[in-house]
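Justification of resources, computational component.

The compute hours requested in this renewal are based largely on the per-chain cost of generating structure records like the one below. Each record pairs the submitted sequence with a full structure-token output. That output is archived, and it is also reused by downstream analysis tasks.
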Amino acid sequence: ILVGHSLGGDTVRLAGDPFAVVVADDRAYVSVATAGHDSIVTVDTITGAVLAEYPLAFSVTALAISPDGKRVFAGRTGHERIDIADIDTTAERVGTIDIATGPGINLDALRIDSTGKRLYVATSDSRGSRLVIVNTETAQAQATVWVGAPIRDIAIGDGVAYVLTSDLEHRGVVHTVDLS
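The structure output for this chain reads:
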């Protein structure tokens, strides 16, 4: 796959199909799927050089990056389980945050708060959707909020999560969740 580089029109060749991207400072982190595995590829946004690759099990379905750019969170969906790969970009190691298991479970969106201490995870299964709030320091879920309709995206404001849902019955709705 060719990814256009905005400076000078250069391209970066990445093997596989890209799905999501997050950027911090002069680094882009791109999720790429190949026949063998998914991975997060680190690209220098100035030179276009591929700096690192983090192979991952399961399918990457969402990305988020900490405000300081030191941690990339890759939401993954596997066979009847979802988790988050927690990539420490300075130590170049990968940890796992377990989220849920069950038939038809999916991880649909990720957002991190401005402190980098709370990760907001949209999950769905045949019963509906939930917003799971994860403490990034302990890698533990702190709370779960039932939402119902499929979550399409999340935005985090000052003490409020804005949760966008969409389905045939209610069409598009933005739910406000008081985070206190």
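The two ends are 43 Å apart (CA to CA). DSSP finds no helices and 17 strands in the chain.
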